[in-house]
Amino acid sequence: MRNISTIAGKEFKAYLNSPMAYIIICIFLLVTGTFFSIYLKNIDYTDTTIRGFLQYANPLLLLFAAIITMRSLAEEKKMGTWELLLTSPVRDVDVILGKFLAAMGIMIIMLAFTLYYPLLLQIFGDPDMGPIWTSYLGLLLLGGAGIAIGLFVSSLTNNQIISVVVSGIILFALWYLGNIANNNYMPTGLAKVLSYFSLQSHSTNFTIGIIDTRDIIYYFSIMALFLYSAVRSLESGRWN
Predict the structure, then answer these.
(1) Sequence ranges of the domains in the chain
(2) 39 phi and psi, to 5 degrees?
(3) pLDDT tens per residue across span 145-182
């Protein structure tokens, strides 16, 4: 556990020492804040929810998860520290979990700044806080799934651009599976399968205040699968 916390702390400081984390947070706040304001303006403040924020926060989280993780392992290979990492007296699972927690730390900070939105709603209205808090839980789970996928892809290449592009393709493919499943021409059985594997379909319940254990299990399964795959990728690199 100490190795994990040490690696997580080191990686987290590296994020904070890089302008990339601040740029990502600022862009996220600028985009989501703009559409949050536009949404409230169009409904004349009668709907005291964070729907305007959530509408763009979900896909942006996936994009930024790919960007945040693109340097996690790909940069180790590019900078020549990959061999040092592989020969260090730490387990592969410690390395992956440490980097995962560091990236999650940046994600949590990014979401924490958006708590200004529900605070604003409380000042000027009477929002139902239940769906708001469950929406944030859904965002954290979605972000965790995105980071796990990004880490796995980053472990496969030494090129950060390839890492972010491939991660983005996988993440948005999983997100838009829900839209494909809603196609009326899709066979019912296939539609159900695609809908189950869609990141988007499992985020819907959180936005309306429902915490379904099936959604939580799905997100944790995605995280476990891709983190395990990243560990196996690290192990194969050690032996090669």
Answers:
(1) 2-239
(2) -60, -45
(3) 999 999 999 888 888 888 889 998 999 888 888 777 66
